[in-house]
Design goal:
The chain has 301 residues and is an alpha/beta fold. The chain has 14 helices and five strands. A five-stranded mixed sheet has the order 3-2-1-4-5, with helices on both faces.
Length: 301
């Protein structure tokens, strides 16, 4: 019966399984917890080479979990409460004790995570995720759009309406949409700051098309010079942040990894949370996350 319960839990919630087997909710959970703990003890991290780190929001009020994924197997190898340096540091110390041959860790530019990695490894292990970098730039670009819209003349206010997605999307996504291109061109034609920031955004996206680290280093240096002399304060501020992390950005060309796989698992975690109507027992929730890649149901269970 125990094995049958475990198999069913790959497809359904505790409530579904309990109803199907006419057993109590608590009994199904106890069986599942016992099985997960037993499997967890067998998990090995001594061969891990490439890792992806990200946070996932699990509750309102900025409640996060730190998730670490083995990028070669797709397995969650660490899940911890919060997104502090301590949340990640405990796992990295375990990796060092296990003498895991870690080559690189993909992550965003969240300072606590950076601090945790640098307390245990060198900067050469960090690979800043390209999609998070562009996402950060887009947040800055949207902030600039709002600021420029507030300062615009009354006669120009309508030009700033409904253009947010045009600014933030890649240029190629609106290439075949004549109306969208015209609206974007109109906005950029009347606003110098947004025009400069938009051009620099598209040029920054091209960085990861470089074919070598040396080429990427020259490209990034040139881009930073343009940003620093742009005259747009928000762009200059962003460029200073990027310059401080250039080693981690350029490490991508030695280890071309991203946190994309972690993002996919984070989406599964959110679905798991919704299907279970939230988790009051966080220890059990964390245990389930460790084996979420085994779930056979399309949306995970």
């Amino acid at each position: 019966m125990g094995r049958y319960v475990i198999e069913l839990m790959k497809y359904a919630t505790i409530e579904d399984v309990a109803r199907h087997l006419r057993m109590s909710w608590d009994t199904i959970k106890e069986i599942h917890v016992w099985a997960l703990k037993r499997k967890f003890k067998k998990k090995r991290i001594s061969q891990v080479e490439y890792l992806g780190v990200d946070e996932v929001s699990v509750r309102k009020g900025h409640r996060y979990l730190t998730i670490v994924v083995n990028l070669e197997t797709g397995e969650v190898v660490w899940a911890a409460r919060n997104r502090t340096a301590a949340s990640l540091d405990r796992f990295l110390k375990r990796l060092k004790r296990a003498r895991a041959p870690v080559k690189a860790i993909a992550m965003d530019m969240w300072p606590p995570y950076i601090r945790a990695v640098l307390d245990n490894y060198s900067y050469e292990k960090i690979v800043f995720d390209r999609y998070h970098i562009i996402s950060d730039y887009n947040r800055m670009l949207d902030e600039l759009r709002k600021s420029e819209a507030r300062a615009a003349a009354v006669s120009e206010k309508n030009v700033f309406t409904g253009v947010r997605y045009l600014l933030l999307k890649g240029q190629e996504t609106i290439q075949d949409d004549v109306q969208a291109r015209q609206r974007l061109h109109r906005l950029l034609a009347i606003n110098h700051a947004l025009n400069i920031a938009y051009i620099l955004k598209e040029e920054l996206r091209e960085l990861w098309n470089c074919t070598s680290r040396s080429e990427a280093e020259r490209y990034l240096t040139d881009w930073l010079k343009k940003a620093w002399t742009s005259g747009v304060l928000l762009v200059i501020k962003y460029a200073k942040k990027l310059a401080g992390h250039r080693v981690g950005i350029l490490n991508y060309f030695d280890h071309p990894i991203t946190t994309g796989m972690v993002e996919g698992i984070n989406n599964k975690i959110k679905v798991l949370k919704r299907r279970a109507y939230g988790y009051r027992d966080m220890d059990y929730f964390l245990l389930r996350i460790y084996f979420i890649h085994e779930a056979k149901y399309t949306l995970t269970g």
